[in-house]
Specification:
Layout: H1 3-11, E1 15-23, E2 28-37, H2 47-57, H3 60-78, E3 83-88, H4 90-95, H5 99-110, E4 117-122, H6 130-143, E5 146-152, H7 158-165, E6 169-172, H8 184-200, E7 203-206, H9 212-221, E8 225-226, H10 242-247, E9 270-271, H11 276-285, E10 291-296, E11 299-305, H12 306-313, H13 318-322, E12 337-339, H14 344-354, E13 362-367, E14 370-376, H15 377-394, H16 404-416, E15 421-429, H17 431-438, H18 440-457, E16 464-469, E17 472-477, H19 482-496, H20 503-508, E18 510-514, E19 520-524, E20 527-535, H21 543-558, E21 564-569, E22 572-575, H22 587-590
Parallel strand pairs: 2-3, 3-4, 4-5, 5-6, 6-7, 7-8, 9-10, 12-13, 20-21
Antiparallel strand pairs: 1-2, 1-8, 10-11, 13-14, 15-17, 15-20, 16-17, 18-19, 21-22
């Protein structure tokens, strides 16, 4: 059983192919994943076949060593620019105590800086004992290597391992990337992984990116890096299709007004070997600096605070003992480090959580793990306050929902990204007559109720709900079950709007009033008309065409008495409200999810 593997290893027939990992913002490779292949046109060409046979033969460690040797030799020979991602089975780290020393020797012989190497631990082989694995990666980090979790989501223990070893990179399994542009569930999972990455300070890599839609959506969700056939298949000498990359929609730089990068103060870091006396002199020359990041090969390893250092050196004999020592000997290793692309709300949580009990005004901002600059809590608070003020300006003052500007921005972005979604416009029927009879305060209660109904029915962070003004609401739905959510809205409004009328008007089925032309007439009770238009991502559509389609569909909805919802798909209009049972009160009201007005 062992002969084929032994023969293969002895012959040196293994070879390494590389697949680029790209920064979505710059469209440049930040590194390459090394993948091992057997001889071409051989039954052991496949890595799956290689690994399986080696495991049966008890030669997994020997195979892994040969794979790493091949990867290091090829990486050096090709002089690839960027980091080298190397796969290592978790069990290897647990069973082979001397692996870090072996790797250090191999890196030294190959002339490769350990800081350029990322060890990928595949989730397929993650141990149930995350504590042991966390201990096993400590020597690798001490060597200078970064740690990545590969294929997150393919196994059962990925999140536990993430929490235990705090990786520098997390690679999301291709299952969650394939079809993400058409699957709201996968979109939400990927978005959640990105959020966890921001909070834990690790970078997220989306594997299996194969088309432009996946590329655009991954960037929109905040993924740091991307890997897949769209950029290049694994090859012995990897190349990038620059024409294709240039044709992709230009990504934003990744640092916007709502990200930590916007808070950066350009204060130089100090090398870990710089003496304490030299750091004191730097603080003396720059009295506005309150802290300095301590770096090792451009990567922050701690921070030294001005006040703490001066107090420390004021003690007897401390200047004589420490002035000549490196600043790393007196730095704070628990300094807060935050990725430049973290949202301000995440930055706030990180700063608050990591400085609990000992507040600090300074934190370190990084980009791709390298030092970018310093940030200060006072600037963070200032920007969050400005954000809140700006959001308030752009929101409807009554409901607090995003206003017309945000609605138009969302529609334009979703159309530009070729998203499939359903655009909806809701307005109230006979609302003027209701306001005339009951007053604007009562009318505001109705509007707040409608906003609550729509918001509760929409899926958070997947769907979008806006309030144009008055009794006009626009909401955009990407949820897979959007039709059920729309019918739930109609059902709830059908059951609840009448309750805002008096008992007398409810019994009469309407009220007397004056229309917009000043003519006295009888008006029915409040109802809502919803126009919905399905947007197909495969067809180019403009915002004006969406507005025209909504207007035409709205006329069909208004033509029907009572609460209605008309859906336009192409040239056909379907009445979704026929699916709504006429039950009062509605199930949602019975569950206490919505509060309705009393008669």
């Amino acid at each position: 059983m062992a002969d084929p593997i032994r023969t293969l290893l002895a012959s040196g027939a293994l070879h390494t192919v590389f697949q680029p990992i790209l920064d979505g913002a710059t469209r440049e490779p930040i590194g390459y994943e090394a993948l091992t292949r057997g001889p071409d046109h051989h039954s052991l060409n496949s890595p799956i076949a290689l690994i399986a046979l080696a495991a049966k033969s008890g030669l997994s460690t020997e195979l892994e060593c040969a794979c790493i040797d091949s990867a290091l030799a090829s990486y050096r020979r090709l002089r690839l620019k960027g980091r080298l991602f190397v796969n290592v089975l978790p069990q290897t780290l647990l069973d082979w105590d001397d692996f870090p020393e072996w790797l250090a020797d191999r890196l030294s012989n190959a002339g490769i800086d350990p800081h350029d190497v990322v060890i990928e631990l595949t989730e397929h082989g993650l141990s149930e004992d995350e504590t042991q694995l966390a201990a096993a990666v400590v020597p690798l980090r001490a060597l200078g290597c970064d740690i990545a979790i590969d294929d997150l989501g393919a196994g059962s223990s990925g999140l536990k391992t993430w929490s235990a070893i705090r990786p520098d990179y997390v690679k999301v399994d291709r299952y969650f990337v394939a079809g993400v542009e058409q699957d709201a569930v996968r979109t939400e999972i990927l978005r959640s992984v990105v959020d966890m990455g921001r909070v834990t300070g690790c970078r997220i890599i989306a594997e299996g990116v194969e088309n432009r839609e996946q590329f655009a959506l991954a960037l929109e969700l905040g993924v740091d890096y991307l890997q897949g056939y769209l950029f290049g298949q694994p090859a012995r000498s990897p190349t990038l299709d620059m024409a294709m990359l240039e044709s992709l929609e230009t990504a934003k730089a990744g640092i916007t007004a709502d990200c930590a990068g916007h808070l950066v103060i350009q204060i130089p870091g100090v090398d870990a070997a710089v003496s304490v006396a030299d750091v004191v002199e730097m603080f003396r020359k720059e009295p506005t600096w309150t802290a300095l990041a301590v770096l090792e090969k451009e990567r922050p390893i701690g921070m030294v605070h001005r006040d703490d250092l001066l107090i420390f050196l004021s003690r007897p004999l401390h200047p004589e003992v420490y002035n000549r020592k490196p600043v790393a000997s007196v730095m704070n290793r628990a300094a807060v480090q935050i990725d430049a692309r973290a949202r301000l709300d995440q930055v706030s949580r990180l700063v608050t959580a990591r400085t609990a009990g000992r507040p600090r005004d300074d934190f370190i901002v990084t980009r791709n793990g390298r030092y970018l600059g310093m940030g200060r809590t006072i600037d963070l608070l200032r920007h969050i306050t400005a954000q809140q003020i700006q959001a308030a300006k752009q929101s409807n003052p009554l409901t607090g929902l995003p206003g017309n500007r945000e609605i138009q921005t969302h529609i334009a972005q979703w159309l530009a990204c070729r998203r499939s979604f359903v655009a909806c416009h809701l307005d109230l029927d006979h609302f003027k007559a209701f306001n005339d009879a009951y007053g604007y305060a009562r009318g505001d209660q109705v509007l707040l109720h409608v906003a609550q109904v729509v918001t509760h029915a929409a899926r958070p962070r997947v769907d979008f709900v806006g309030h144009v003004g008055g009794d006009d609401f626009v909401f955009l739905m990407r949820s897979q079950d959007w039709s059920l959510r729309l019918t739930a809205i109609v059902e709830e409004l059908e059951a609840s709007l009448a309750n805002f009328h008096s008992v007398e008007h409810r019994k009469a089925g309407g009220l007397d009033g004056v229309d917009r032309d000043g003519v006295a007439r009888r008006f029915p009770l409040l109802s809502a008309s919803i126009a919905a238009v399905e947007i197909d991502s495969r067809k180019p559509v403009t915002a004006e065409e969406v507005a025209d389609a909504l207007q035409a569909t709205k006329r069909a909805a208004k033509a029907k008495a009572g609460c209605s919802c008309m859906l336009a798909v192409g040239n056909e209009i379907t009445d979704l409200s026929v699916m709504v049972p006429k039950v009062v009160p509605s199930p949602l009201s019975q569950m206490g999810l919505f509060a309705v007005g009393a008669g």
